[in-house]
């Protein structure tokens, strides 16, 4: 077990969706700790609750019952603005469908989260965007628009956008889902490299090849956490 | 053909499948097409269509221009008419006419009728046949014969088909009815007369109309009028040609000063039509965006761009066609309302109706609408390559079509711009009207009733006029609740009466050239006139019963005349030199305050007042000040009192004086009301357009909103982003409209009163109002954007 305090804690988290009189238990009594430097994968069949869990972790949704703590602080009472601030400062998102904004250039897409951090001036923002693009090897495409890039390149840009605010947690929802195997592997290499540089990653995937690349793989089934495989903790490996 | 039918069938399906869009689009189109068609029909009938007389373009009014003062006069005499008819002139025929009043004996009462007394060839000049009976001819003059109007025939004689040859009693004498003129026939004056009567003698002035020889234009006729001009010079004893002959087409005379306001309203309504079409174009953009999948499937199964465009145009042709039919119903209804609202203030109002021109015009509007609403959105959205990419890239989410967004913003900016122009014009007219309506009139019309009695006809008994008027004043004063009564040959804001400028001078007057002599308007009044109207006596006194026909000639002048003749001096005690036919020199005994006699818009004229005992006229208007609110009873008693004194001279035009004041600016009020309605519609349509674009922006970008929220945007930041992005075209459109309004407002400068065409209050307040409305229209979708659930938005396709 890790001796450090977890950065993310889920205690007995349940999520129920109600449609009329029908209740769907998307998540049932999930307990989970995520530590700094973790590379956690969440796998399971379609409809098992992977994306719901990721949405709760990303503060895009709230548990019906249970407690969600970030750095040991409860999140239930956070306002919409406080959630947005926390997402902006501490959480980065990478989506299966890339979700880049077509009207904005690569540079502008990556710059977008920084615009919501009001304390940065233009020069500082430019530096950060360039660093983020450098990290994902997309500096040479900064003036292009998403429609001019391949799927793999678009996902790299999406990773750069997720990283630009230097979040403590990167959430990736099927980041290779829309990519061919070559580009998928390249994106996974990128995530691994980022994890090695200290970024905590939590990735939803249904591809066992990629799940095996993480240090912890939790499996969900019908909204329940049914299995957890721990490979080697990166810190332990370093040690 | 089969393909077209299939497209139309699909169009019907589409209309049913998208009820909200279809209803909004139909209502918008119906509104735009309807009011535009109504206004076009009105302008076409009033200004463009020939008058309903055979070869009406040959009909002209004969007028005279004073070369020195540019004053135009239509007054002439029967003597001039007779001599003109004798000489070589460019006319096929010349006629004269004048208005009169006859009393029709209905047994229990005398019904006042408006009569037109004319030359015997009047009907031949106009070329309109009676519907039954015959025209009058030279032989009918002095035979006590009349033609009656269609309305009189219907209302007073139960449309008796045997009316020709029947005897009726007018002014207590027997007259023979020769025939009935067609419904709506108004003749030269274009004022509805109840009967026409031929004469060959009349003491007072008449008006002249003529039919030009076939093929002659007004310019050619003017050039061929040397003989006519010579005669005019002779009649005026005027060797230098001060009064120059001029011909005005009857149509121009009838249309008068309504031409500019009607074109202004037509321009406004065309602007509203464009806003309506742009709105539907915008709505259609939204619809086509939602149909990308369907259109893409059509591309996959082989549809070409041309085929898709044809299908979409067919669908919209159907929509616009239905909108056009609804618009036609609205146009018919609007025309009825306009006719009722404008009444006699609009020339040729009775001729306005839906006709073939209207139907062609509405077809044109439907075609323009259908082409605009299908081709503008389709040209940016319907591209087979783009559509097939849209399907291929279904998994790769990106934002909506940038080009169509640009076009939509451009359109909404255009809508806002046009709305700004209309609102500014309406705002300027509103300010102008407010200033006009609050103009001091110089008299108090509260609790004052007026009525008119007229004795001009040769067929009425001619009483000792002054004694008669004074007796009528006395009897009206005896009506219960009447506090003051007076009479004048013309009253302020009056629609009838004797009001013409008279040359005058005074002993110390500077010498002027012939034709440039000062003139002042004459009024003949009874004692108590200024008191009844609360017109202040500034100097001296008003008339009393010591001012008789035998006493020295006295005159009261208004302040303007006093200031122009004797500036800085006392006018009382001076002499006003009037023409001999008015009695020559008059002693000024009083100066009274200025009064706006000819409407609130008019300038105060130089005026002088004579006592009725020293100068009386065959017609007088009465001022009856009352303590009672029961005006209906008072009206009845005023009529009764006049008939008791002389049965053939019933009092007419009885009503509150305040109404006459309001009537004097009725044209301004009508234009303002209609333009405000158009501007209001433009504002609503533009707001709907702004809302539609903003709402569509949020719908199209739901996924982007989710992305932005996921990467840390606060709800306030989302709202700011949506507001900024969607309010930009509103702001730019308002600036564009403001710049154009500076130009367009010049066109209405001549109808404004007391307001400059660039009035800063209007030019600041209107954009502020419009931007506020625009911000509300964008704020609603912007607020909705903040309520988007980020997780759902990210899953949104």
Overview in brief:
The complex is a heterodimer of chains A (239) and B (797). In chain A, 34% of the residues lie in helices and 27% in strands.
Describe it:
The complex is a heterodimer of chains A (239) and B (797). Helix content of chain A is 34%, strand content 27%. Chain A has 8 helices and 10 strands. In chain A, the strands form 2 sheets. Chain A has a 6-stranded mixed beta sheet, with helices on both faces. In chain A, a hairpin with a 2-residue loop joins strand 1 and strand 2. Chain B has 797 residues and is an alpha+beta fold. Helices cover 50% and strands 17% of the residues of chain B. Chain B is built from 24 helices and 23 strands. In chain B, helix 11 packs antiparallel against helix 12 and helix 20 runs parallel beside helix 23. Chain B is elongated and about 105 Å long. The interface between A and B is medium-sized, with 33 and 24 residues.
């Amino acid at each position: 077990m890790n001796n450090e305090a977890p950065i993310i804690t889920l205690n007995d988290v349940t999520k129920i969706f109600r449609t009329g009189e029908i209740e769907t238990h998307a998540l049932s009594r999930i307990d989970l700790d995520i530590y700094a430097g973790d590379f956690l994968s969440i796998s399971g069949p379609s409809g098992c609750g992977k994306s719901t869990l990721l949405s709760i972790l990303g503060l895009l949704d709230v548990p019906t019952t249970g407690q969600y703590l970030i750095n040991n602080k409860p999140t239930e009472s956070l306002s919409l603005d406080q959630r947005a601030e926390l997402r902006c400062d501490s959480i980065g998102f990478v989506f299966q469908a890339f979700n880049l904004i077509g009207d904005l250039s690569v540079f502008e897409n990556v710059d977008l989260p920084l615009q919501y951090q009001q304390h940065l001036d233009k020069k500082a923002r430019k530096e950060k965007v360039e660093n983020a693009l450098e990290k994902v090897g997309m500096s040479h495409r900064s003036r292009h628009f998403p429609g001019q890039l391949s799927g793999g390149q678009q996902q790299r840009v999406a990773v750069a956008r997720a990283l630009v605010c230097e979040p403590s947690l990167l959430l990736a929802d099927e980041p290779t889902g829309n990519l061919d195997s070559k580009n998928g592997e390249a994106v996974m290499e990128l995530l691994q490299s980022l994890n090695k540089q200290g970024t905590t990653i939590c990735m939803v995937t249904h591809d066992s090849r990629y799940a095996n690349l993480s240090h912890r793989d939790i499996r969900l089934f019908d909204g329940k956490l049914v299995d957890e495989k721990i490979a080697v903790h990166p810190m332990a490996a370093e040690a | 053909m089969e393909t077209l039918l299939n497209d139309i069938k699909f169009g019907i399906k589409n209309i049913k499948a998208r009820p909200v869009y279809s209803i909004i689009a139909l209502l918008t189109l119906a509104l735009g097409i309807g009011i535009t068609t109504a206004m076009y029909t009105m302008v076409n009938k009033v200004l463009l269509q020939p008058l309903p007389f055979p070869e009406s373009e040959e009909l002209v009014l004969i007028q005279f221009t004073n070369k020195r003062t540019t004053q135009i006069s239509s007054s002439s005499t029967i003597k001039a008419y007779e001599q003109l008819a004798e000489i070589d002139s460019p006319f096929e025929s010349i006629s004269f006419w004048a208005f009169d009043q006859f009393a029709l004996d209905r047994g229990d009462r005398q019904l006042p009728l408006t009569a037109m007394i004319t030359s015997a060839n009047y009907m031949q000049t106009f070329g309109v046949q009676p519907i039954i009976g015959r025209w009058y001819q030279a032989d009918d003059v002095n035979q006590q014969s009349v033609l009656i109007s269609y309305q009189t025939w219907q209302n007073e004689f139960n449309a008796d088909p045997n009316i020709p040859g029947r005897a009726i009693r007018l002014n207590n004498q027997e007259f023979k009815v020769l025939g009935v003129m067609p419904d709506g026939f108004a003749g030269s004056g274009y004022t509805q007369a109840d009967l026409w009567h031929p004469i060959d003698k009349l003491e007072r002035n008449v008006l002249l109309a003529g039919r030009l020889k076939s093929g002659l234009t007004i310019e050619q006729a003017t050039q061929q009028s040397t003989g006519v001009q010579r005669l005019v010079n002779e009649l005026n004893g005027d060797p230098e040609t001060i009064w120059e002959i001029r011909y005005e087409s009857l149509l121009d005379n009838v249309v008068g000063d309504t031409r500019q306001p009607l074109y202004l309203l037509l321009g406004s309504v065309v602007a509203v039509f464009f806003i309506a079409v742009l709105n539907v174009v915008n709505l259609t953009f939204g619809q086509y965006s939602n149909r990308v999948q369907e259109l893409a499937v059509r591309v996959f199964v082989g549809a070409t761009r041309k085929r898709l465009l044809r299908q979409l145009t067919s669908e919209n042709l159907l929509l616009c066609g239905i909108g056009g039919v609804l618009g036609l119903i609205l146009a018919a209804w609007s025309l009825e309302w306009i006719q009722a609202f404008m009444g006699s203030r609009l020339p040729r109002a009775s001729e306005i109706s839906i006709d073939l021109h209207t139907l062609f015009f509405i077809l044109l509007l439907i075609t323009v609408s259908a082409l605009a609403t299908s081709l503008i959105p389709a040209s940016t959205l319907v591209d087979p390559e783009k559509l097939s990419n849209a399907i291929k890239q279904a998994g790769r989410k990106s934002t909506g079509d940038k080009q169509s967004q640009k076009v939509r913003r451009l359109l909404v900016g255009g809508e806002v711009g046009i709305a700004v122009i209309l609102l500014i014009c309406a705002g300027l007219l509103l300010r102008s009207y407010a200033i006009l309506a609050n103009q001091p009139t110089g008299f108090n019309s509260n609790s004052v009733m007026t009525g008119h009695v007229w004795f001009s006809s040769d067929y009425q008994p001619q009483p000792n006029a002054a004694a008669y008027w004074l007796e009528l004043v006395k009897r009206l004063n005896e009506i219960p609740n009447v506090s003051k009564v007076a009479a004048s040959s013309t009253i302020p804001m009056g629609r009838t009466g004797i009001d013409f400028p008279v040359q005058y001078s005074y002993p110390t007057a500077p010498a002027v050239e012939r034709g440039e002599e000062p003139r002042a308007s004459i009024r003949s009044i009874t004692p108590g006139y200024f008191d009844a109207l609360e017109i202040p006596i500034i100097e001296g006194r008003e008339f009393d019963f010591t001012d008789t026909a035998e006493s020295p000639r006295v005159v009261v002048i208004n302040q303007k005349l006093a200031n122009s003749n004797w500036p800085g001096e006392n006018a009382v005690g001076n002499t006003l030199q009037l023409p001999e036919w008015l009695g020559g020199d008059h002693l000024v005994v009083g100066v009274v305050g200025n009064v706006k006699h000819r409407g609130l818009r008019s300038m105060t004229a130089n005026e002088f007042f004579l006592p009725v005992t020293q100068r009386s006229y065959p017609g007088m208007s009465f001022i009856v000040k009352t303590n009672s609110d029961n005006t209906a009873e008072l009206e009845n008693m005023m009529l009764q009192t006049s008939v008791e004194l002389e049965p053939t001279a019933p009092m007419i035009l009885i009503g509150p004086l305040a109404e006459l004041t309001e009537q004097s600016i009725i044209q301004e009020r009508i234009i303002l009301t209609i333009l405000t309605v158009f501007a209001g519609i433009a504002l609503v349509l533009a707001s709907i357009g702004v809302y539609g674009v903003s709402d569509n922006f949020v719908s199209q970008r739901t996924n982007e909103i989710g992305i932005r929220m996921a990467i840390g945007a606060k709800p306030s930041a989302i709202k700011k982003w949506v507001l900024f992005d969607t309010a930009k075209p509103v702001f730019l459109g308002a600036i564009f409209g403001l710049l154009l309004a500076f130009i367009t407002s010049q066109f209405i400068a001549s109808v404004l009163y007391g307001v400059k065409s660039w009035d800063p209050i209007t030019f600041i307040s209107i954009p502020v109002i419009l931007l506020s409305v625009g911000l509300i229209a964008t704020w609603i979708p912007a607020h909705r954007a903040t309520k988007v659930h980020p997780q759902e938005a990210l899953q949104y396709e």
